[in-house]
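Hey, can you fold this one?
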Amino acid sequence: MGFRNPPVPWSELERRLAGASTGELPPAWANGGDSPAWSRKRAPYAPPPDLRTGARRRRIPYAELHSRTNFSFLEGASHPEELAEEAARLGLDALAVTDRDGFYGVVRFAEAARAVGLPTVFGVELTLDGPSAPPVGEPDPPGEQLVVLARDPTGYAELARATTAAQLAGQKGAPRIDLAHLAELGSGRWAVLTGGRRGPLASALAQEGPAAAGRALDRLVAAFGREHVHVELWDHGDPLDTARNDALAELAVRRGVPVVATNDVRYAAPARRHLATALAAVRARRSLAEMDGWLPGGSGAHLRSGEEQERRFARYPGVVATAAELGRACAFDLRLVAPDLPPYPCPDGLDEMALLRRLVEEGASRPDRYGPRPPSLGGDRLGQRAWRQIDHELDVIEALGFPGYFLIVWDIVEFCRRQEIYCQGRGSAANSA
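Sure. Predicted structure:
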């Protein structure tokens, strides 16, 4: 793993620190290639051989609609794979990953969920009117957080566009978007949850009372439509949870807004609670003793089964079933989200592949490159070998349907050259013919 690090792969080191590993030392020194920051050496996900899911046992339907992975830096305390495995073990109907201000963990989550047979929901916990600079060293960073779930691949694309707008509007580490702009970017393909403790309803209720929370709910309904807004209840065992949930449920009933149960999940299982508290202290740059008043008293922010949620929310009939219905309605496979590049403007009636071939021919034919195309490409001279390789690469690009990507990269590089900006294309493909 590097200087002064043990000869253990990053993933194995993490498991040992969490008390979950019984494996032996690997025979060779590890280089950290499987760390969270790297992906090039990450092996395909394989579920634990002893994973027992709850699909066959009698259960109460439930889908968890609000959870963070450890890609929500210093907030989530479990890997996406851990959440998928625990949700499958509990027999959940679906699991939504809603990382803070981005889709950072969805690829690994989707891969693991597919392997364990878990339906997947994709969403984001967006920061509304967030701070103008990254919140460093604050026990409770400012900004309200709204949970938005994509109902289908089109909604996923619209939500990705909204997260991009939020990131571009703020500084690195401090995205921001207002409610009106967010509503403009949606087209009715989102399910909007009112969020957890830092959501607009809970924040207004805690600071100003039920009337302010009602006004916050009215704003959400006006922005997204009554049928797309869901009031979120959660119970971590805090003494004030029941009073807050009573007030939120009453607001929802008065306004005809559906109510769902969640657990505002930050880690997969109770054993991760201590790691979550340590992460919170690191985020605030304080000791655990200094953070004591800010930290929850128990390990409540983990995944729960439908049976446990039904017991916890017995005073709110139907909220667990509504969560299950919404989860099933929003579930889809990430493989359905195929990226579409914008069409490249082609002159002279050419299509993208014809334009790419012409540009490559012009560039490769220059005297300082390979010169004009030889009449025959069967020889072993440099020019003949180069033109054979060029034809092969262009054929591969055409077969894969990627001429637009190469034209966009070429356009960016040409702009940089005109502006005398030092640059190069990213990767071997972008730097080839």
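The two ends are 36 Å apart (CA to CA). Let me know if you want another pass with a different chain boundary.
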